[in-house]
Amino acid sequence: MTNLAVIETKDSDALRLAPHNLEAEQALLGAILVNNEAYDRVSDFLLPTHFFETLHGRIFEVITKLLRAGKVATPITLKTYLPDIDLGGMTVPQYLVRLATSATTIINATEYGRTIYELALRRNLISIGEEMVNRAFDAPVDESPRMQIEEAEKKLYSLAESGRFEGGFQSFGTALKAAIHMAGEAYKRDGGLSGTSTGLIDFDQKLGGLQKSDLIILAGRPAMGKTSLATNIAYNVAKAWRGERQPDGTMATVNGGIVGFFSLEMSAEQLATRIIAEQANIPSFKIRRGDITAEEFGKLHEAVQEMQVVPFHIDQSGGISIAQLSARARRLKRQHGLDLLVVDYLQLLSGAGKKGENRVQELTEITTGLKALAKELAVPIIALSQLSRQVEARDDKRPQLSDLRESGSIEQDADVVLFVYREEYYLQNKEPKPGTEDHLKWQMEMDRVHGKAEVIIGKQRHGPTGSVQLQFDANVTRFSNLAKEDYLPDRGED
User: Rounded CA gap, 114 and 149, in Å?
Assistant: First the structure.
């Protein structure tokens, strides 16, 4: 035939053919030429490039075009569109007739198609391996080994994810079973949510939990507590994780989730200290100085013991690119599993181009990459973002979508946009002279907003917008459910 690729072995001068099965290719093409319905059994996963023999790929391509045009694919209709070449004493029209006459049934068409597809995947693996070797020998000056590893990981992961035969139409009964299964999984989870619970009741009611494949932008001005909120949610998810062993030996998440946290600004130790402070209810500055009592040390020890088994993974590398982040996220999911990814924060990532050339274009690449990664890994991604200074120039400091820095791509790619706003922060800087009437009014306002935070839902693709009130303890940087009057127990009369 015409495309007999060979591979030279390392241990000898012998040549090996790349994995292929010409008989399976011939049997499938023959079955389709005899009965065009056989094509429908493989059309949703098989492509012309999956055929080892070039002529077979060309035949399959012409068959595809004819059938999609509503025509019949037979040796007679095909021969006009194929090259007139010599196949060892046999013409192409004769070869087509031979394929059709030797075919007997379409029952095994799907199996033939899968065999061809899997062999193509193996050839792709060989190709990736060869490319890795060649690039390692002759790497460009500006390409580091780390870049080559990340590129290879990306190709391997893409190949692994593409090796599936699911897709196409399904019966309504099958869809009903999937819907009931989803409802059953939601019933098992805390709060009965369709998504992963954040541990914040009012927040979950608005969002329905964190939904798979969603890109969630969490934005705020400095000191609003966006990192604290992201950390609180991430740890709540990891702490609630519960898995079940599947028949194939893998672990499936039943509640909570395995968390990956990219801390591009803070070190892993600083992030861990924040979480310890929140869990032990001890201010982080006291922990850093060692200014704690014996009782507090006991609480600290208990919190650390509990935290050691929580599936919470931190990457503290600064200045990484969106490609590097994606490669590390894929690796984490493959090695440990992944149910939630947090990026702190968006503006510290870089794109593929040179830094500073076009920041708006670079941020577009980053947000598009994060959304694609969320869909690829089927996990929610919470990405923190800065707000522009124009917020400070307004009387009403509540953030809006237009306040997002380089907001176009962020607003477009995000499924959910959240803003953290604490009125207490702005109000405490406006304290009038003590003893005046203005000071009394100010004190009343401070009492009203003390320890409270507002999370504004500026955009939600599949749900309502609005705001959620939360409790915020600045000493231990903890967000929690707000105790409302309606929720408080009845007070007993003396």
Answer: 30
Which DSSP category does 492 fall into?
P
Is there a single domain that holds both residue 208 and residue 329?
A: yes
Predicted confidence (pLDDT) per residue in 107-125, tens digit: 788 888 889 988 988 888 8
What average pLDDT does this structure show over 389-416? 74
Residues 240-257 pLDDT 10s: 888 887 776 667 777 888
- The mean pLDDT of the chain is 78
Q: What range defines the domain where residue 299 resides? A: 193-487
Predicted pLDDT of residue 381: 92
Are 219 and 314 in the same domain?
Answer: yes
Q: How many domains does the chain have?
A: 2
d(CA 451, CA 463): 28
Q: Do residues 63 and 39 lie in contact, with contact meaning Cβ atoms separated by under 8 Å?
A: yes
If asked whether residues 248 and 110 sit together in one domain, one would say no
Residues 209 and 345 placed together within one structural domain of the fold: yes
Find the distance separating the first CA and the last CA of the chain, reported in whole Å: 98
264 and 380 inside one domain: yes
Pairing of strands 466-473, 478-481: antiparallel
Task: Look at residue 188 and tell me if it is in a domain.
Answer: no
DSSP 105-173: -STTHHHHHHHHHHHHHHHHHHHHHHHHHHHHHS--TT--HHHHHHHHHHHHHHHHHH-----S---HH
Maximal C-alpha separation, the chain: 109
